[in-house]
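retry 2 of 3: previous attempt timed out while embedding glyoxylic acid. Reduced batch size to 1 and resubmitted. Inputs unchanged:
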Amino acid sequence: MWRDLAPIGRNTTTNGYRRYAWTAADTDCRAWFQAQTEARGLTYELDRNGNQWAWLGDPTAGDAVVTGSHLDSVPDGGAFDGPLGVVSSFAALDELRARGAHPTKPLAIVNFGDEEGARFGLACVGSRLTAGQLDKDRAHALRDADGVTLPQAMERAGYDPEAIGPDPERLARIGAFVELHIEQGRALDDTTDGKDTPVGVASAIWPHGRWRFDFHGEANHAGTTRLEDRRDPMLTYANTVLAARKKARTAGALATFGKVGVEPNGVNAIAGLVRGWLDSRAPDEETLAAVVGEIERAAVERGQRDGVDVRVTRESFTPVVEFAHDLRDQLSGLLGGVPVLPTGAGHDAGILSASVPTAMLFVRNPTGVSHSPAETAGEDDCLAGVAALAQVLEGLACH
Ligand code: GLV
Ligand code: MN
Ligand code: MN
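retry 2 succeeded.
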């Protein structure tokens, strides 16, 4: 399975993945998922929001145990964020069948669409729509960098954008959702306590969001405009990036400007507009709001000195997620007391947790690198992840 997925959407120059929602690479990933489903004689379902499901047992029976993740990527993402969960789900199911386990509940594997939000700027679109956390009008207004709207992109990929919307009936059929994911930090690799821990269980997801900062100045000639006559938004932007780092550090939070757009983007022109996207995360919502507020204030104050107008738009927000304690304890027990750790990364599991008992398994990442082609996990650890997931599915669905 890993070999089949490896070439899909990989940029041969960077070796990073560019599997964006509703593109040709996404279509190929989806075809792979459907083929894996059919090869195992599972029942294939495509839901109204473009999420794919593979069912063992009756999809309508209720109290289903669902596992899975996503196949899309960030720009130049790694191979594991998302696909490890989907591949491990199929492998864990194979393992259960090989053992002759008899599920007494329906089991399903899901591939949620557009988890990373790389193309339309909003993460977890497939699960948010399903859970009623994103309404149809807002989804229809999403646009990519080329101005293509989400409905246009869906239509071009052969899906019906009019069908999207909440799917409470589908969620009501799920008794538990477990997402396996590569760890996106090094907590499991911290072997200072001498434990060999390839797998952990998630406790919580930090609240996080995305804010667009528009710095409006005045485009002008780089060679003839006196410094005192300039209204250069690049200066305000640069100072805001530094302020963000400082505010985050003092608050024990995270703040990152990882995406920027400049107009007119010429070497010999002072920029007229700089657009920077802030991703910020913190252990609690109060801290997050305070950090973002301080960054905004710093931007506005600096803008006044630079003659630059600053506008801030919140593009997305995900509240803190505390995973269901009993399910989390049940998993940790089934796996013999593995570490329980929080994460700063967003996941479909976080979205679903508002409607369904949800848990996550993390697989050790020796470098902690993620959202980069350097993301990696050892084969033995991946297999330990599959074994753990099989154990969990058996514990949840076979008794
Ligand atoms: C998703 O991976 C996110 O945390 O941004
Ligand atoms: Mn990710
Ligand atoms: Mn992910």
